């Protein structure tokens, strides 16, 4: 028979890991490319979602978060139980397991959130690359979307550069006074 502390530990870790949830698709907007029909866009979207999913190992961000949270809670419980048993015997193992579960679950929530957002970021990057390669419109950083222009000339009077050394000016045209 399983100890009630381990059943409670498993339930609590699943509940805490479940607090972290992220979208199951891309979090970036893509628009149909020039000259593309909406059906072509939908096909590209489905293909790129599949491609992005394969790039992050076939798991979604929520599953990555849950796995990370549960692993941290289980490790925390085991370490806490071992430390409690060493320090306080049989009763200390239960207290250590409870403390380890609590600390491991808190660390697991942080690990789950970090894992989920990392997986989502990688998914979005792969999705954007795929949609761009298929000719769809995808978001770009503002610094890349501004057109590059030559700097404007400073306002004021313009003075031409001096002639090169040894330059002899041409004779004046007929009808113009010489200087």
From TrEMBL:
Signal peptide residues on this chain, from the entry's feature table: 1-17
InterPro entries (UniProt xref): Gly-zipper_OmpA-like_dom (IPR025693)
Compositionally biased spans, kind Pro residues: 159-179
Cited Pfam families: Gly-zipper_OmpA
Keyword Signal: yes
Region (Disordered): 140-179
Protein name listed in UniProt: Glycine-zipper-containing OmpA-like membrane domain-containing protein
Lineage, opening ranks: Bacteria, Pseudomonadati, Pseudomonadota, Betaproteobacteria, Nitrosomonadales
């Amino acid at each position: 028979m399983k100890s009630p502390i381990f059943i409670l530990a498993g339930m609590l870790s699943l509940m805490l890991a479940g607090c972290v949830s992220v979208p199951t698709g891309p979090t970036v907007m893509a628009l149909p490319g020039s000259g593309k029909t909406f059906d072509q866009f939908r096909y590209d979207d489905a293909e790129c979602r599949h491609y992005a999913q394969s790039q992050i190992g076939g798991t979604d961000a929520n599953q990555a978060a849950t796995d990370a949270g549960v692993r941290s809670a289980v490790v925390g419980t085991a370490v806490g139980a071992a430390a409690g048993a060493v320090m306080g015997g049989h009763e200390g193992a239960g207290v250590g397991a409870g403390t380890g579960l609590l600390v491991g679950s808190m660390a697991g929530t942080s690990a789950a959130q970090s894992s989920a957002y990392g997986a989502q970021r990688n998914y979005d990057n792969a999705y954007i690359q795929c949609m761009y390669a298929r000719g769809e419109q995808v978001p770009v950083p503002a610094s890349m979307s501004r057109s590059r222009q030559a700097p404007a000339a400073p306002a004021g009077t313009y003075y031409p550069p001096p002639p090169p050394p040894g330059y002899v000016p041409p004779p004046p045209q007929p009808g113009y006074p010489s200087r």
